[in-house]
Design goal:
Blueprint: E1 3-9, H1 14-25, E2 30-34, H2 45-59, E3 62-67, H3 71-77, E4 85-87, H4 91-99, E5 105-109, H5 115-127, H6 134-142
Parallel strand pairs: 1-2, 1-3, 3-5, 4-5
Helix pairs in contact: 2-3, 4-5
The chain binds D-ribose (RB5).
């Protein structure tokens, strides 16, 4: 089964996004959809968040968003119903983001998180399952 990942960043997360994209391309089980930005030129992170969220919803997929800290782009993504965008910075937060929050978008900071750590966060997030049960009850309340 192929997992479809929509990826995007502003200029602050551009280099991290490019790194992650190259690394994830190498996995046969992943298909990567890069929604930009495509250079280091300054862009507004809410615009990228909106583009990625639209594609995630259309494809019923998951996403990765990068900005300088992961914060601004997560705030915007979370304004969309059905989106659970989690800023993570280590393997534990990445694991919890999936197991407890069923995050469908992972947010990372290009200015706060080293490339290898960010990749490890993505791999951790992808390799765990949502635990459901009481966490499902809580997650269901997020959109209500
Ligand atoms: C852009 O300079 C920066 O503010 C942005 O990438 C992000 O860190 C916002 O949260």
């Amino acid at each position: 089964m192929t997992t479809h990942i929509v990826i995007g960043s502003d200029h602050g997360g551009y280099e991290l996004k490019e790194f992650l994209k190259q690394q994830l391309y190498a996995h046969d089980s992943l298909s990567i959809d890069d929604m930009g930005t495509f250079s280091k030129d300054s862009v507004d992170y809410p615009d990228i968040a909106d583009i990625v969220v639209k594609k995630v919803k259309e494809t019923n997929g998951i996403g990765i968003l990068c900005c300088g800290t992961g914060i601004g782009i997560s705030i915007r993504a979370n304004r969309h119903k059905g989106i659970r965008a989690a800023v993570v910075y280590d393997e534990f937060t990445a694991e919890m983001a999936k197991k407890h929050n069923n995050a469908n978008i992972l947010c990372l900071g290009g200015r706060t998180t080293q490339n290898d750590k960010a990749l490890s966060c993505v791999q951790t997030w992808l390799s765990h399952e949502f635990e459901g049960d009481r966490h499902l009850r809580r997650v269901d309340k997020l959109d209500n």
